[in-house]
Amino acid sequence: MAFYHDHPLSVRLSAMLQLGSAVPLGICAATLYARQLRLGVRVPGPAIGLFGGATAAILLICSASVTWVLSRPELTTDTTLTLALAYLAFVTGGVGYVVGQGLLVAGVAVPALILGLLPRWLAWVGLLVAAAAELSFLSMTVEPLQALLPLGRFGGLGWLIVAGFLLPRTRSAANRAEVSGTGDAGGKA
Q1: Best CA proximity match to 25, nearest among 100, 88, 123
Q2: With the C-alpha atoms ordered 97, 159, 132, 33, is the resulting torsion angle positive or negative?
Q3: Can you tell me the distance from the alpha carbon of 151 to that of 61, in angstroms, rounded to the nearest whole number?
Q4: What is the average per-residue pLDDT within 105-123?
Q5: Half-sphere exposure of residue 97, counting CA atoms within 13 Å on the CB side?
Q6: pLDDT higher than threshold 90 for residue 151
Q7: At what angle do helices 79-90 and 45-70 cross, to 10 degrees?
Q8: Quick check: helix, strand or coil at residue 96?
Q9: 25 contact partners, CB below 8 Å, separation of at least 6
């Protein structure tokens, strides 16, 4: 707990960057939601993804805010308070964020698999990442399952980047991919 007291500038910088990363995540969730609607996806997936993305972004902001509080040396003299705030920052920015991001990934991957909007292998990878992210909530009681957190966090971010480039922008682009039989709608529209 001495780290927070001894390195307030580093903790504050970390909190600032974490809060800043929540904004593009929220924009990504809204953009993917709008793109799926434009593609004619009329199942709950886009709404689930939007909910998950918004949840992840909000919890990331909460975690960053608590981390910023931990950068105040006058508060970190109390070891019990510091430990409680550190756990709160972890659970919101760790488990809470990853579970929300998993919903975002699932909200894109499931409709993409069913409607052929992404290559099948990529949609299946998205489902596996989403499952790992959702199962990470068990790490709140079974600590060895915290290994799922980086898989959900970094695997989910990587998957969202790739899917964002490959998800077609228009229904006509998706139809062209379906007619060609490639199943790879691509982002070329």
Answers
A1: 100
A2: positive
A3: 21
A4: 97
A5: 29
A6: yes
A7: 160
A8: helix
A9: 53, 56, 57, 60, 101
